[in-house]
Fold these 2 entries.
Entry 1:
Amino acid sequence: MPLTFKGDKPKNKKRKRHDDAAPLDVSNKFDTSSTIAESPAVKPSHKAIDIPAEEDDSWTSPDNPSDLAGPTILVLSTAPHAALATDAAGSIFPSRLENIIDDNPSTAEPHDVRQVWIANRVAGTDTLSFKGHHGKYLSCSREGSVSALKEAVGPEEQWTVGVAESGEGYTAKNVHGTYLGVEENDENDGRAVERLKVRGDFEELGRRCEARLRMQARFKPRIKVQKEEKAREKISRRQLEEAVGRTLEDEEVRILKKARKQGDYHEVLLDIKVKGKSDKFA
């Protein structure tokens, strides 16, 4: 069944995609209800949740590793750019990105559910886990073999995400002290991107170990805070009059709405209530 993103970008955008490529709906494939912290070695629930249509489903880049939560794609340093992907069998491979402008990784969005991972903070640690579309976690063995076969988070499913030396991307270090990376290629390389091998045994950092990260905007902490602040600012005249207990003048409404933005709403509300009583008995 074709998968679609809610609020998918219009096709007149300058994106490199096939005409018959079907975008996907991440919310139908993942449980994003527990994107704050996950306990190690505990099998999580895979029950899907309904995300309100009004939620922001656009993609953005994290400002730092601590921003990561929810649907995420790891854009590998290949030419052209590809995303880290997994199939139903748990194999890990680069999947060429189609929703990308001029091969700029900061514009990348997934077109295939296999490219999307759910990032979760592992409780009590500074590490992250990455859950694939099939409910299994990105893992690295001692030998450096990467897969997505485990349904629970253990030491080998935990990743320490850091800022790359170039400052333009991120690195992912596993419990064995080595890094996730992909074989290097260039535009003149005859190999298809999908045939490049992803490994977790790189000991030295370099371009092949750098990845750009993209996440759904609604999970970014700063954006979530801004939305909560905007929600607090929204209040109708009728709600204000119910709170005060009388009909308000236009200036009083303006003052109360301003107070909600500034954070001293309850103090101002009390002042207006007292003023109303004083005027009544004057």
Entry 2:
Amino acid sequence: MSVPPAFTDIAKPSNDLITKDFFHTAAASLEVKSKAPNGVSFNVKGKSTHEGSTGGAIEAKYADAPSGTYFNCLQFITYPQFDRSSHVHYQILLRPGHATLLMFYRRTGLTLTQAWTTVNALDTKVELDNQLAKGLKAELLTQFLPSSQAKGAKLNLYFKQPNFQARAFFDLLKGPTANIDAVLGHEGFLVGAEAGYDVQKAAITRYSAAVGYSVPEYSAAITATNNLSVFSASYYHKVNSQVEAGAKATWDSHGSNNAKINDRGIAAAAYSVLLRPGVTLGLGASFDTQNLNEAAHKVGASFTFEA
């Protein structure tokens, strides 16, 4: 029994095929990834938009893998005065004529990610995966802007079990608010729901639902978002290892409708090539087929370096 996708990923195969790796959305983008010998991963990203704005971020990530030893006998756990953040396990073994004191240090599997962006924002994420309970992952995200002294704090919870996945996102300083979703899966069939709740107002702020069917070769999904007022139907088919096809249509009950095969005559194309191991080049363009003589077209390029 496998874990179903998250609520936002029920229509992911078709959404990725239609929207991902179309490089014309930005004039230029650059991403450099590297990993230090001590296990710290670095990621430097930059992007320039067609409107002229430029943004970037530098990110460092360190994962402290779980380790330690447990005994299948009586033991007691204490938190020493010199380091309350670590779990130190003591065990006393008593035998005739002597006593033995054993001590073990257990690393909790914590992952720390810190980023500094060009808008002078300091972002920190602390992750604890599969430690509080089996299948449960907890994330604490904080943000600090020194220029305005603005602060942000969010708590995210992910719970995965066979045929079930649930997520909860809490904004601790704004509201506070909560967004919760859950998905049930059985033999390829998926059904999910999402709801938002404002604690201060004691009111549901939004709700959505989705159903789908997914197998390795193809998938289909119908989603109803924005309080069940916007409906989308999507289909994805993997013809072979080199050919994929997909389509998506959206209907808004308030009167507007659109499709990814753009009804305004906008055509987009993208090309991605691995120049050499660790270096990827992406090129993209969009054309207004109804105004070919006007400057309404967009082109973009992306470089990704990974070491």
